[in-house]
Amino acid sequence: MFKGYLSVSIQPLPSVVIGDTVTLKCNFQTDGNLREIVWFRVVEGGSAKQKIFTYDAMYNSTYSHMEDNHRREDLVYQSTVRLPEVQMEDDGLYECHVGIYDKSSTDKVILASGSITLTVIVPPKSISVVAANSLAPFSRYEAHNFTLVCIVTGAKPAPMVYFKRDGELIDVVPTAQLSSVEDPSKGRGLEKSFDRRLVGLWSSRALTSGDLDDTKLKKSQLEQEGKLARLGQDGPDGPEKGREHGSKSDSEPTTEVIPETVVSREFPRWVQSSDPLYYFQQQQHAARDGTMEVRAMLTWSLNPQLDNDALFSCEVNHPALSMPMQAEVTLAAPRGPKLSMSPSKATVGDTVRITVQGFQLGPSASEVFPEPIFTWTKVGGPLLDGREEHNGRELIMERVPAELNGSMFRCTAQNPLGSTDTHTRLIVFDNPRLRKRQFIVVLPLPSHLSANHRPPGS
How far apart are the first and last CA of the chain? Predict the structure, then answer.
């Protein structure tokens, strides 16, 4: 006997941004009479279902026109559920269950269902760019690897992160290409391999340069070239073994060994390509609220000549964003720290504070990046506490003595891009509130004067 026909499907739904309103649509096609429609939300990892909507045809006249008519064609109906301002907890699986009456028996119901997964996406909450390397002093004679870290928090799913330099997309080399050499189980193996390869990369790209006026460096360079030349002629095991294999070396072309870069005292003398290689690495982990935190790292061999005043930006693409989200920093060497002294008119016994207030910044820079190291010294001698130098943005001297009057203090600010010095002189005034100690001198009596023969009035 004919039992009736029922087909259920839910309209596909794209990802929904948190806070938006979404409507779930369940379409069903049948030639029978509707019994009920029930919507469920699957919770607890699929082990339980939460009923969120029910329509019972027995107590609702909305579908009263659906009379038994065997000649009519299948009809399509739709049930909708509206979820206003969806949140993270609304993410998950939803099911639509439809039941119709079995025409062979009024006590039986034919059931069918459809399901859909609601995906709630969250745009990034914050984005920032920091320098990964710990603070290091500036070096005139050695290039260093430098790493920018872009930190993106609060996104779901994880966003796509990329870097730009002066508005141009940076072509990066994924560090995954370097990991095949090192065993990932050895902890910092990848990082060490990363550093070694970058140093080798800089050495291969650097051009040899010498200072004609610097005889010591020139002599050192010539000696090094001579040793390498002899090494190429004699072989790695010495002149005797080199001669033993002389027939083989005569038949093969000689490979020229380029010495390492020799840098003179002039700053800076290393020369690098204007298009350096950038290495990219990305890490991500899930937060407690279900969002992702992403850390994207850009590493290259820093060159003050090329990178000073360069604008680096980190940009993020995410399906919940209508346009990229970005954060940017301008690499800059410190230029002349601005110092302030408190109190402005110091007196003997005061506590004096000399503080770095800012820098002489260019028109495009708002602050020096990376954060400089500040080193304080006293010209011509140690600091008041006996130390040769003090690190920090502030120099504090307690109970300054009069002997410090006229002393000159130097503040050195340096980051990987450069170094600069600023001097300030301390003037210590006399403090009238400090009273000088009064001493009473007591002289002994002459030995020939006794206690009974004292002068009158004594």
Answer: 147
Asked if 80 and 53 touch (Cβ cutoff 8 Å), the reply is no
Cα→Cα distances 214→77, 220, 343, Å? 91, 10, 48
pLDDT (tens digit per residue) in 400-444: 999 999 999 999 999 888 889 999 999 999 888 775 544 455 566
CB 6 within 8 A of CB 30: yes
Q: For residue 219, what pLDDT is reported?
A: 40
Q: Is residue 233 within 8 Å of 242, Cβ to Cβ?
A: yes
CB 4 within 8 A of CB 74: no
Q: In what order do the strands lie in the sheet with 168-169?
A: 168-169, 160-165, 311-317, 325-330
- Classified by CATH at the fold level, domain 126-209+261-330 comes out as Immunoglobulin-like (2.60.40)
In CATH, the architecture of 337-429 is: Sandwich (2.60)
Distance, in Å, from the CA atom of 279 to the CA atom of 146, rounded to the nearest integer, reads 10
pLDDT under 50: residue ranges of the chain? 1-2, 61-72, 177-269, 364, 437-439, 458
Residue that the structure tokens 């009479």 belong to: 33
- As a whole number of angstroms, the distance between CA 323 and CA 187 comes to 38
Contact 193, 178 (CB under 8 A): yes
Res 271: pLDDT: 53
Q: Give strand pairing partners of 355.
A: 340, 394
Tokens of 86: 């969806």
Closest by Cα among 292, 88, 293, 279 to 201: 279
Is the domain covering 6-121 a CATH 2.60.40.10 domain? yes
Check residue 248 and give its pLDDT.
41
Which residues of the chain form CATH 2.60.40.10?
A: 6-121, 126-209+261-330, 337-429
Q: Locate 229 and state its tokens.
A: 């030349």
Query: Model's pTM, two decimal places?
Result: 0.65
